[in-house]
Amino acid sequence: MTSTLYQQIQELYDASSGLWEQVWGEHMHHGYYGVDGNLKKERRQAQIDLIEELLGWAGVPSDMALCEPYRILDVGCGIGGSTLYLTEKFSSIAQNNLKSDGGVDRVTATGITLSPVQANRAIERAKIAALESNVNFLVADALNMPFPDESFDLVWSLESGEHMPDKIKFLQECCRVLKPGGTLILATWCHRPLGESAGELTDAERKELAEIYRVYALPYVISLPEYEEIVRSLPFTNIRTADWSKAVAPFWDVVIDSALTPSAIWGLLTSGWTTIQAALALSLMSRGYQSGLIRFGLICAVK
Length: 303
Hints:
This protein is an alpha/beta fold. 49% of the residues lie in helices and 18% in strands.
């Protein structure tokens, strides 16, 4: 990544992660509110439900996948919410397999982030959960991952692709570190599809996206069909995509409502201008989903 973008992303999450955990918990991603986004549920449960729905949609894990030591990579791990959740879930399934038919007794996970604050907090949370022997967190660039080829059975990227300044290089790296037969699960912010029927982005849409990029330290986003095109150029099979925009769109209004509390407001005021700007832009994301400009794209593929 460019040094300036790297610094912007690091500063954003160094400054905001503590407040996010204090007010909203360990999962720093969208929630799932049913196929049409009509289900009412507690926000943290909605975030857990998103993880479960993604795994179910991708068909991971399977008994076959957990027949030997299993390694997970969480790209853009935040403070370790998804990493620890996946490790506990997969370990429980593996232990049941071990009891029934001699399955795997070891599931390990690695989380990477650009934020030292996030990595350190994730390590602390792993110790609290008694999972420090199963998980590892480190500061690393997703475009140049410090792992050998074919290291992981599952590469999980939940809302980190939008931060990548080179989407092709990012997906090439995800493919490189996957073992043959391993699975990629990617969920990322996108803009609406382009083309003859949809038309190119308007000046107003570009302006709206530029403001989102500025406050959330994003270089740019692309459409889900563009992501699919990149994935199809790589040695992947069983490629599937989905647009879950309706299912996750209510998340932003829920976050806005939860931010209007004395503790959240005080936390924002004391966390610095970078975090305040991100909070002020919550309505931008809400309007982006309402207009159809912002999309929540999913890709699942097998190497």
